[in-house]
């Protein structure tokens, strides 16, 4: 078995990265490209032993990194960002081969954002204030102390972007980390370890353990030496992680799934509204924030439906490395089956297929056609459960009140999008929506200074801006007599 594999011309080490060294496990798992089923390599499959070794390495490296002046930590983070920029093309290609998302998005959107994650938190760290105040002549001095080793557990749909969204603030705050990437997209985390080491990050400050969630992930979540767990992934896994963390009372940040609505009012710019709806097929629908429930005002529903159906059918599906491709494959056969199961059951339950409705038989493999369903009941599975594929449902409403009621009738609360030409309506409606992020006449516009997270079952806590430092730090108030 080779520990160095070549992926799209880039050499990737398939072992863990623990204490500044590559460490192999006897067991491995196979990493397969969703584009064509090609085997990319055998990856070290960590468990309790490797997780324990990584937490020990992170604990050993913690005092020195925590004591490193902020400016120096910020400088290392910026050097990591420069390293990402330098290897942007390689990272984009490896990520596309590994998770099947569009190469052009990786090149132009995702990987630049990875670098931005590091630069943003470097800058934010330097500006992090001390909130000092006086109590009867005594000074209260609030400090942001690093918490210790953090376990960061991440999904496959935007692997490096979501990993660095956690790694960057955790490291900036002076913590050490153990990153456990998803087993369906393990490769760019390994490249990140090399980039960080080249940038001067000391050994043990960033560790990467590869493996399955139920093995390496569970071992990290239940490890008593871990001071923070930040998890992005599904609700069922979050429950396992919360249960594993409970005996140690390890603080958790959970960024979970969604079933977000797009509300389209009769006064909306229809071209824009159709664009916003079509955007929900991005990344083959594997986007936590995707507005998969289209709620459309009855007077414009027929025209909106006609235009969106055309758009869905015109989407070019194929190899995500081709510039012309608009929608690539799903990540894994299990996901394809899961998505198709949702659609079949919805149809059996009375849903009408306006576009797509099954795998792309011309392409074969993991390609699922962009699907639009209507005549769906509000309490049906297809409206209530996260599909995590290119499947949108379309429902109509008659009144603003009804639109808000439908939008909020979900156990999720990650995001919502409103299309309307009436500012007053936008204010009324957004005030009533339960969601961590609400977009008005736009979608996916993200500023890292903003809080990010979900309400209800979509998450616990917020990251972004100083909220990330709130989570990754132990805030301390020191009261000094005059
Ligand atoms: P998942 O929950 O199956 O896996 C996520 C990670 O958890 C993987 O690294 C996995 O190995 C690990 N894991 C699995 N079982 C574990 C256990 N028992 N203990 C510890 N770790 C374990 O999620 P997924 O399928 O990889 O990702 C898709 C989900 O992620 C969707 O629900 C999506 O909405 C959500 N997501 C949310 C956000 C957000 O920011 N809110 C962003 C992206 C994805």
TrEMBL record:
It holds the Pfam family Aldedh. Keywords: Oxidoreductase. PROSITE patterns: ALDEHYDE_DEHYDR_CYS (PS00070), ALDEHYDE_DEHYDR_GLU (PS00687). GO terms for molecular function: oxidoreductase activity, acting on the aldehyde or oxo group of donors, NAD or NADP as acceptor. Residues 27-477 form the Aldehyde dehydrogenase domain. SUPFAM superfamilies: ALDH-like. The active site is at residue 255. InterPro entries: Ald_DH/histidinol_DH, Ald_DH_C, Ald_DH_CS_CYS, Ald_DH_CS_GLU, Ald_DH_N, Aldehyde_DH_dom. It comes from the Bacteria. Belongs to the aldehyde dehydrogenase family. PANTHER family: ALDEHYDE DEHYDROGENASE-RELATED. This is Betaine-aldehyde dehydrogenase.
């Amino acid at each position: 078995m080779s520990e160095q594999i070549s992926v799209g011309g880039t050499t990737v080490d398939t072992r863990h990265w623990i204490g500044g060294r590559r460490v192999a496990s006897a067991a491995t798992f196979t990493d397969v490209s969703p584009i064509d089923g090609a085997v990319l390599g055998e990856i070290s499959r960590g468990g309790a032993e490797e997780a324990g070794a990584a937490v020990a390495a992170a604990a050993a490296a913690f005092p020195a990194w925590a004591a490193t002046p902020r400016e120096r930590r910020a400088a290392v983070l910026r050097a990591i960002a420069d390293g990402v920029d330098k290897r942007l093309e390689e990272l984009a290609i490896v990520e596309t081969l590994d998770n099947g998302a569009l190469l052009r998005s990786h090149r132009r959107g995702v990987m630049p954002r990875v670098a931005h994650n590091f630069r943003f938190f470097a800058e934010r760290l330097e500006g992090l204030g001390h909130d000092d105040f006086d109590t009867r002549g005594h000074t209260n001095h609030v400090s942001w102390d690093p918490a210790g080793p953090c376990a960061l557990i991440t999904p496959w749909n935007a692997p490096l972007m979501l990993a660095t969204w956690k790694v960057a603030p955790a490291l900036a705050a002076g913590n050490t980390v153990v990153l456990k990437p998803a087993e369906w997209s393990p490769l760019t985390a390994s490249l990140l370890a090399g980039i960080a080491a080249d940038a001067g990050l000391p050994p043990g400050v960033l560790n990467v353990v590869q493996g399955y969630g139920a093995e390496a992930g569970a071992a990290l979540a239940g490890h008593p030496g871990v001071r923070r767990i930040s998890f992005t992934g599904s609700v069922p896994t979050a429950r396992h992680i919360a249960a594993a963390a409970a005996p140690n009372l390890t603080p958790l940040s959970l960024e979970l799934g969604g079933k977000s609505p797009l509300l389209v009012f009769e006064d909306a710019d229809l071209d824009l509204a159709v664009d916003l709806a079509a955007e929900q097929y991005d990344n083959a629908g594997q986007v936590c924030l995707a507005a998969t429930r289209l709620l459309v005002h009855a007077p414009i529903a027929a025209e909106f439906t006609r235009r969106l159906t055309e758009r869905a059918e015109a989407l070019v599906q194929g190899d995500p490395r081709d510039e012309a491709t608009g929608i690539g494959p799903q990540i894994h056969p299990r996901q394809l089956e899961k998505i198709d199961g949702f659609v079949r059951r919805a149809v059996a339950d009375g849903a009408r297929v306006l576009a797509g409705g099954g795998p792309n038989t011309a392409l074969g493999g993991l390609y699922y056609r962009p699907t639009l369903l209507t005549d769906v009941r509000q309490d049906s599975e297809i409206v209530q459960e996260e599909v995590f594929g290119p499947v949108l449902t379309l429902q109509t409403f008659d009144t603003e009140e009804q639109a808000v009621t439908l939008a909020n009738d979900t156990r999720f609360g990650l995001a919502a999008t409103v299309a309307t030409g009436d500012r007053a309506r936008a204010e009324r409606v957004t005030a009533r929506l339960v969601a961590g992020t609400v977009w008005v006449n736009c979608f996916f516009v993200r500023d890292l200074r903003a809080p990010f997270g979900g309400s209800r079952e979509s998450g616990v806590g917020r990251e972004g801006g100083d909220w990330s430092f709130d989570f990754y730090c132990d805030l301390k108030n020191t009261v000094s007599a005059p």
